[in-house]
Design goal:
binds fe (ii) ion, single chain, alpha/beta, about 25% strand, six-stranded mixed beta sheet, Purple Acid Phosphatase, chain A, domain 2
Length: about 290
């Protein structure tokens, strides 16, 4: 009897491991449609990836590329953490650079900074020398990270801003609210004559983002809360908040809509339960 129970336990454990593995590699596409009278094109499609964390889906992320191609985007946006900078993880940019290079060959690509990219450049952190290497490799691919910069797409009437949020706002357990005027100081005034998109990796600061006034915020970081429970949503955030309010999906504040991606990768502990990797497709439609 004892051996039967041990075998049954091992079988269940193997099933659980297989399920977690499937969740880590399964990619879902989540589609959103938003409208605005500020757009100059009738339809404009954005594909957003966040939190790749050097993950490779299948052979050299071919599946990710195929899914992007299938959506036929006008542009691709990264909402941060395409690489991982961790004391527990050897630095390796190959997966991110390989995917970025192949996406950039086909589509205009706009890269917002996450806390892991920010960590690469922060003295005296040990990864400081890697910032120059990583951004140098990106430059060879003709891709740059938007660090408190904007890009205007005149044919679409869209202005994309990339917020470089300092490390102190990512600290754990407590909230560290962005002070009034922070975004204006970093980015200038939001362009009210265009459809404005803010790339802001940390979703928790939505109220500060909304005060600045973007139409759309694109965010990541939370990985969907790692484990998603029915009715309760994501279980834990990187800030170690249990059942975080900002876990995934759509959020609204004033005139601002935020789309929070569950991310497409994992790092340190490869765990996703009821929380598949995600590619986000956003169709913007001009309303008269
Ligand atoms: Fe992050």
């Amino acid at each position: 009897m004892k051996y039967i129970l041990i075998l049954a336990g091992l079988f269940l454990l193997a099933l659980l491991c297989f399920y977690i593995y499937r969740e880590c590699i399964r990619i879902d596409v989540t589609e959103y449609t938003l409208t605005s009278s500020l757009l100059k094109k009738d339809t404009f499609r954005i594909v957003m990836l966040s939190d790749l964390h050097e993950t490779v889906h299948g052979k050299d992320n071919e599946e990710v590329l195929e899914r992007i191609d299938g959506l036929a985007p006008d542009i691709v946006i990264f909402a941060g953490d395409m690489i991982t900078a961790s004391d527990f993880h050897p630095l390796n940019y190959d997966a991110a650079l390989s995917l970025i290079g192949r996406i950039a060959e086909k589509y205009p690509l706009y890269y917002g900074i996450g806390n892991h990219e920010e960590k690469l450049k922060r003295p005296p952190f040990r990864h400081i020398k890697n910032w120059e290497y990583y951004t140098g490799e990106l430059a060879k691919l003709k891709v740059s990270i938007l660090q408190n910069e904007k890009v205007f797409l005149p044919e679409a009437g869209i202005c994309i801003y990339g917020l470089d949020l300092e490390y102190q706002y990512y600290r754990k357990i407590k909230d560290y609210p962005i002070p009034d005027g922070y975004l204006e100081e970093k980015l200038g005034k939001a362009d009210s004559s265009s459809y404005t998109i803010l790339l802001a990796h940390l979703p928790d600061q939505l109220s500060a983002y909304a005060k600045w006034g973007p139409d759309l915020v694109l965010s990541g970081h939370v990985h969907g809360g790692v484990i998603r429970l029915p009715f309760l949503g994501g279980v834990i955030s990187p800030q170690l908040k249990l059942f975080p309010h900002f876990d995934s999906g759509l959020f609204y504040e004033g005139k601002t809509t935020m789309i929070l991606s569950r991310g497409i990768g994992t790092h340190t502990i490869p765990l996703r339960i009821n929380n598949s990797a995600e590619i986000v497709s956003i169709t913007l439609k001009r309303e008269e």
